[in-house]
Specification:
Layout: E1 3-7, H1 15-26, E2 31-36, H2 49-61, H3 67-83, H4 90-99, H5 105-124, E3 127-128, H6 145-155, E4 162-165, E5 168-170, E6 176-178, H7 184-195, E7 199-204, E8 225-226, H8 228-236, H9 247-252, E9 257-261, E10 270-272, E11 285-299, H10 305-318, E12 323-325, E13 332-338, H11 339-342, H12 346-354, E14 359-374, H13 384-394, E15 401-403, E16 410-416, H14 420-432
Parallel strand pairs: 1-2, 1-7, 2-4, 3-4, 7-9, 8-10
Antiparallel strand pairs: 5-6, 9-10, 11-13, 11-14, 12-13, 14-16, 15-16
Helix pairs in contact: 2-3, 2-5, 13-14
Bound molecules: aspartic acid.
């Protein structure tokens, strides 16, 4: 029986935290496969090693001396090595990294996880395995599961105890390929899937997933259990405890994920699984993001709506703009997209859509926020939307967009950016608390 246990950057940010991590790992025989992020922030104002490595590479690229950045990074590793009396030859490792700087940004940035995992493996007495040999990408930057599963089965035996760096793997030509930021979560999920783990533990620095963002709500309640789909909805809409791409590999293999706190190890955390147990709350959580834009298109009454919608969508597809929502009425429809994804090409896209002679008007609604109210218990429960809209009405929040599909897992509303915080507070206090 194997549990894959992943530790985030703050869990390995100093020697004391290395000790906490070791205690946690050694307290459970099944914690055999350990994945780590690079040394993260000790305090809020601190810098993550990953960010410093990006900075180092930028200095190199623009021919600026990087000695200071390099020594800040080295210090972080050296301090932990010295305080834990480790033997790792960091001088040699750093020399090799700088000699190979031409291998590119992804190589340099991956060295944060690489060295952190090497130190942790020595400290635990577990074997180190380089993710370059385990996580195999195709040239399309997608994980090749066949090759990855073969590599994992060849390199990790049933009772091996191993430490693996998160966040990267390799292309067929052995060059390093990174996941998106926060991607050590994905490494853990892939290993869990390929090893058929009984549980994927994701240790971080909060007690689990909150019902609403603690940046907006003081001391929000914790979610004890939720389904994979609920988590996808919440993390897509900005609940940022784990990387959104983590869910898919474990969901198809039906492996539960437990979000746990390294600094509060007796807390049960949040459990994510297929059949999350029942709870009294109708709403599991609320999450939202600001800065969407809505393209409102009005068509000529005699024309066919589906032709115009597909014409507009094709333009967005060619421009690689992904779509959040398409509310429609008889002669008009809106296409809602993330502002940052369209901003640079907005006017070209507008004029291309307007070039269709059946489009008689195109207006823009800027500064839109989307808020998702998520809950597996909403199905077949009349009155929830009524309550929700009444609450927002009492707070004088104007709702610009409403969307829910028939699976009833979530209701998404669009409000003005200025009403974002007010709306989340009203929803949390009115339908969650
Ligand atoms: N160190 C990487 C980052 O900061 C990956 C991770 O921590 O998961 O994004």
């Amino acid at each position: 029986m194997v549990k894959v246990s992943k530790f985030g950057g703050s869990s390995v940010s100093n020697s004391n935290n290395f000790k906490l991590v070791k205690d946690i790992i050694l307290s459970d025989e099944n914690r055999k496969v350990i994945v780590t992020s690079a040394i993260g922030k000790e305090k809020d104002k601190d810098n993550k090693v990953t960010d410093l490595l990006y900075l180092l590479y930028a200095h190199y690229k623009y021919h600026v001396n990087f000695d200071n950045v390099l020594s800040t990074i080295k210090d972080k590793f050296m301090t932990i090595k010295n305080e834990l009396n480790l033997k790792i030859d960091l001088e040699k490792d750093f020399n090799e990294i700088i000699e190979n700087i031409d291998l590119g940004e992804e190589y340099i940035v991956s060295r944060g996880e690489y060295l952190t995992a090497k130190m942790l493996s020595e400290y635990l007495g577990y074997k180190f395995i380089d993710s370059k040999d385990l996580i195999k990408f195709g040239y399309n930057s997608k994980v090749d599961y066949d090759l990855t599963t073969k590599a994992i089965n060849a390199l990790i035996k049933e009772n091996d105890k191993v430490v693996i760096p998160g966040f990267y793997g390799s292309y067929p030509n052995q060059k390093i390929c990174l996941f998106s930021r926060g991607g050590s979560d994905i490494t853990g999920a892939i290993l869990s899937r390929c090893l058929n783990a009984i549980l994927y533990e994701n240790f971080t620095d909060v007690d689990g997933i909150f019902m609403a963002s603690p940046k907006i709500i003081d001391n929000p309640k914790m979610i004890d259990e939720l389904t994979y789909d609920e988590l996808r909805e919440l993390s897509y809409m900005g609940a940022s405890v784990i990387n959104e791409e983590t869910i898919y590999p474990v969901q198809i293999a039906n492996i539960p994920i437990n979000i746990l706190n390294t600094f509060n190890k007796d807390n049960k955390g949040t459990l994510i699984k297929k059949d999350a147990k029942g709870m009294n709350n109708i709403i599991t959580g609320v999450a939202g993001k600001k800065d969407f834009i809505s393209l409102n298109i009005t068509k000529n009454k005699a024309s066919n709506k589906i032709d115009i919608i597909s014409f507009a969508l094709d333009i967005l597809k060619r421009n690689k703009v992904s779509i959040e929502s398409i509310p429609t009425s008889i002669d008009s429809f809106s296409i809602v997209v993330e502002k940052s994804s369209i901003e640079k090409k907005l006017y070209d896209i507008i004029s291309e859509i307007k070039s269709n002679e059946d489009v008689i008007d195109l207006s823009i609604d800027d500064n839109l926020s989307l808020i998702a109210i998520v809950g597996r218990n909403m199905v077949y429960k009349p009155g929830i939307s009524a309550k929700l809209f009444a609450l927002l009405g009492e707070e004088k929040v104007n709702i610009k967009l409403i969307s829910q599909n028939t699976q009833e897992l979530s209701i998404t509303i669009g409000v003005d950016n200025n009403d974002f915080t007010k709306a989340i507070k009203a929803i949390y206090n009115g339908v969650i608390l």
